[in-house]
Design goal:
Blueprint: E1 18-20, E2 29-30, E3 33-35, E4 96-99, H1 110-113, E5 119-123, E6 127-130, E7 135-137, E8 142-145, E9 154-157, E10 161-163, E11 168-171, E12 174-176, E13 188-190, E14 194-199, E15 202-204, E16 211-222, E17 225-227, E18 245-254, E19 257-259, E20 267-268, E21 277-281, E22 284-286, E23 293-295, E24 301-305, E25 308-310, E26 324-326, E27 331-335, E28 338-339, H2 343-347, E29 360-362, H3 378-387, H4 398-409, H5 443-448, H6 469-476, E30 486-491, E31 496-500, E32 505-514, E33 521-528, E34 531-536, E35 541-548, E36 551-561, E37 566-568, E38 572-578, E39 586-590, E40 598-603, E41 606-611, E42 622-630, E43 636-646, E44 654-660, E45 669-676, E46 681-688, E47 696-700, E48 712-719, E49 722-728, E50 735-741, E51 747-755, E52 767-777
Parallel strand pairs: 4-5, 5-8, 6-9, 7-10, 8-11, 9-12, 10-13, 11-14, 12-15, 13-16, 14-16, 15-17, 16-18, 17-19, 18-20, 18-21, 19-22, 20-23, 21-24, 22-25, 23-26, 24-27, 25-28, 27-29, 31-38
Antiparallel strand pairs: 1-3, 2-29, 30-32, 32-35, 33-34, 33-36, 36-37, 36-38, 39-42, 40-41, 41-52, 42-51, 43-48, 43-52, 44-45, 44-51, 45-46, 46-47, 48-49, 49-50
């Protein structure tokens, strides 16, 4: 037995108590135990002894039969292909299918192209294919060559893209889901397939997950840009829009970029019928919100090696230093990963593992894999990924250029809709190169390589290197080395508030844009959401937006240079508030709010209230619309209101009624109202007396049930030191949802409260609520 590691901290979690790891003998096992004593009694465990993995004990189940073309093949999918799917052949040697239309279906469509097997699919048209229904790849032995699309390339949007065939190569394809369907779609998915290579694809804007390719066999996913799951969108579970479910038997994920994903960065999903054997290395994970990598329950072997983690604005403080939170019972090797800003985890990766109840096995050496990739350091991988990722042939588009700028600059945020960052970009087509024999190879290339541009058979002909002539042409395509332009909105600032009594306001928006090398900026187009506000063709890049109504708006600018390259700026949320007299009520931001709150009288006893921050014991920060009243020891005070609307900007944002002793952030208080929960609303009661650092919180319903999204009446009653909160759908039948005894002085502040559920990150949510029939009885 080798010498055990010195004592190191292993972080853990549990419903009760604290979890610790313990060192056992070979094979190295981290065991999570529950400590029932007080937090001060938490032990710092010894970590496991180093050990060699006995690979003979890995009992692989028999995978599905391979397509005959793959059996015995030793020619990589393309030069440089690596990993478990390296010898996938796709459509090699098979007839060409030309995609000639952007229509959803019919002859010449992508849907028709992937409906049958044994095809090399090329594009004679560029632009955006708007799906009317999910697109299923039902054929096998296919290559989808997105790099052949002329102009800006090709994108598939608006619905799910599912791989349901075997021996498939997909390269340089953009797949973007979005929220137009109003359903919880996965953007790109596939399960139970064998021999796949997904390379240089851009996948984004999933409602459930963006990229869920799991439970498959012999797969490589490489150089893919997987971005911006939609956080509070159409998913029935509320906050969702995750990176993806990954995993399988003999699968490789390398040099991919996960960007602005709240969770599943990724999640390695357990599938009963196969052995989970995964090599996950040299990937970059940026702005992983509330969970990092996790899952892998009972896995036979997962390598997490030399990945680069870069916390971003949405990354929670407690999540930032976490490499992985494994499910119990799995076998892992975790090494050489780097977490920017956390050198202690970079130096000791085992300290970045959150150990589960039941423990995991940690292998001292990487689990061996066939066709292993050439591993870079995490730093080298970070630079390599930013230099070459996503569907960058024929060119990087404005969306991906924005995302890469976010990674470099540490900007951006989780989004709830693609409209918050400009929406689906317009991809321009161009005249495709001449191809008289329709073999997929341009005539000029055929002539230059001693092929016959009038012979359709020579495209599929296999040469001595094992590649067809068409594949050699595809592999020869190179992207322009010029960088996309840079663009940033300089005014307004992020979360700037514009408050005025006028029903409509005027905003001046300015941007700065620069082009790479000797290129010049030819246009800057400004957007509010996905609506164009106008185009400016020369500096200074400034536009005046008139008629701006009350609400939160997301501003972006799209710069185009003289080469035709484009970049969208990162989104800039701004808040336009119409102010009114409050008829005897006072609007106050209690505590240190990140965004100034606002209130407006909408009619008799009806208000719109906007706020940020979080109601939280001695650190309250929220918007409070209030009156000061006398409430002596024997008096009874009551406030009633109907909450008609609470904006669904983030899970946990709150609107309710409150009684508090003072306007200081550490004042005793009692508040009851509603919050956005996982799939609907919940009643929410919070109270704080004077002692401790946390409030007492209770939900309603108390179980996992939720309330329908509709108006609710809330009532607070104060009888001396006793407080009650009630909820009703009609103001006639009431349910008590909270109670507390809190001593308060004779005069109290009573009113309407809204917060943005501020979390431990750099993102500031701004919630808005409509209250009606507000009454105070005392």
């Amino acid at each position: 037995m080798t010498e055990a590691h010195p004592k190191r901290p292993i972080r853990g979690f549990g419903r009760r108590g604290f979890l610790v790891g313990a060192a056992l003998t070979t094979p190295a096992i981290m065991v999570a135990q529950q400590v029932q004593s007080a937090p001060a009694a938490r032990a710092e465990p010894d970590l496991p002894a180093d050990s060699k993995l006995d690979t003979s004990k890995i009992n692989k189940r028999k995978p599905p039969a391979q397509q005959q073309a793959v059996v015995g093949n030793t020619v990589p999918a393309f030069p440089g292909a690596e990993g478990a799917g390296k010898f996938t052949t796709g459509g090699r040697g098979h007839p060409v299918y030309e995609v000639t239309t952007l229509a959803d279906s019919g002859p010449g469509s992508l849907r028709d192209a992937v409906s049958q097997s044994n095809r090399m699919i090329v594009f004679r048209v560029g632009g955006t294919i708007e799906l009317q229904g999910g697109l299923d790849i039902t054929g096998s032995n296919l290559t989808i060559a997105g790099q052949t699309a002329p102009g800006d390339g090709i994108a598939v949007v608006n619905n799910e893209f599912t791989v349901d065939g075997d021996n498939i190569i997909i390269r340089y394809l953009r797949v973007r889901g979005g929220d137009r369907m109003g359903t919880p779609i996965d953007t790109f998915k596939g399960e139970g397939r064998r021999n796949l290579v997904i390379d240089h694809c851009s996948v984004s804007w999933g409602v459930d997950e963006c990229f869920s390719l799991y439970g498959n066999y012999d797969v490589t996913v490489s150089h893919c840009l997987i971005a911006e799951g939609l956080t509070m969108s159409a998913h029935e579970k509320g906050r969702h829009g995750y990176g993806g479910l990954w995993g399988g038997q003999n699968v490789t994920y390398h040099h991919n970029l996960l960007v602005h994903q709240g969770g599943r960065n990724p999640r390695f999903s357990f599938v009963e019928h196969l052995d989970q054997l995964v090599d996950h290395r040299n990937n970059v994970i940026y702005d992983y919100g509330f969970t990092s990598c996790y899952g892998g329950e009972w896995c036979e072997g997962i390598n997490l090696v030399a990945n680069y983690y870069k916390p971003g604005p949405a990354t929670l403080a407690g999540t930032a230093p976490e490499i992985v939170a494994p499910g119990r019972g799995g076998r892992w090797h975790v090494s050489e990963n780097e977490i920017e800003g956390h050198p202690e985890i970079t130096a000791d990766n085992l300290a970045g593992i959150t150990v589960p109840v039941g423990g995991i096995t940690h292998a001292a050496e990487p689990i061996p894999f066939p066709n292993e990739i050439r591993t870079q350091t995490a730093q080298e991988a970070y630079q390599a990924v930013l230099a070459d990722v996503g569907a960058n042939l024929p060119r990087l588009d404005a969306v991906d250029a924005r995302l890469l700028a976010d990674v470099r600059n540490g900007t951006g945020r989780l989004i709830n809709s693609q409209t918050e960052v400009g929406g689906f970009p317009v991809l321009e087509s161009a005249e495709p190169p001449g191809d008289r024999d329709h073999d997929g190879i341009p005539d000029d290339w055929e002539k230059a390589h001693d092929l016959d541009p009038k012979d359709p058979a020579d495209g599929a002909a296999i040469g001595p290197d094992g590649y067809s002539n068409l594949e050699r042409y595809l592999n020869s395509l190179q992207r322009d080395s010029a960088a996309n332009p840079e663009v940033v909105i300089t005014s307004p600032k992020q979360n700037q508030v514009f408050a005025d009594a006028a029903a409509e306001q005027e905003l001046v928006i300015t941007a700065e844009a620069t082009a790479d090398g000797d290129a010049t900026i030819t246009a800057v187009e400004f957007f509010a959401g996905d609506k164009s506000l106008g185009v400016v063709k020369s500096a200074p890049y400034k536009i005046t937006w008139s008629g701006v109504t009350d609400g939160t708006w997301y501003l972006t600018a799209r710069a185009t240079d003289s080469r035709g390259l484009k970049t969208q700026s990162t989104g800039t949320p701004v808040h336009v508030n119409r102010t009114t007299d409050l008829a005897g009520w006072t609007s106050t931001d209690v505590g240190d709010v990140p965004i100034a709150g606002a209130a407006a009288l909408k009619g008799d006893d009806a208000f719109t209230v906007k706020g940020s921050g979080k109601i939280w014991a001695k650190q309250d920060a929220f918007q409070f619309v209030h009156r000061e009243i006398e409430a002596g020891p024997s008096s009874i005070v009551e406030i009633i209101a109907r909450i008609d609307r609470l904006s669904r900007v983030y899970e946990g944002v709150y609107a309710g009624l409150m009684i508090r002793e003072t306007l200081e952030p550490d004042s005793p208080y009692f508040t009851g109202g509603i919050v956005w929960s996982a799939g609907g609303l919940k009643g929410h009661v919070s109270r704080f007396a004077r002692f401790g650092d946390e409030p007492s919180i209770s939900p309603y319903p108390w179980d996992d049930d939720e309330l329908d999204a509709k108006p609710y009446w809330i009532r607070l009653i104060k009888r001396g030191t006793e407080f009650e909160a009630h909820l009703s759908t009609d103001s006639l039948q009431w349910t008590r949802i909270g109670y507390e005894r809190i001593p308060m002085a004779g005069r109290v502040h009573i009113g309407l409260a809204v917060d943005g559920n501020q979390e431990s990150n750099a993102i500031n949510n701004y919630a808005s609520a409509d209250f009606a029939e507000v009454r105070v009885n005392s």
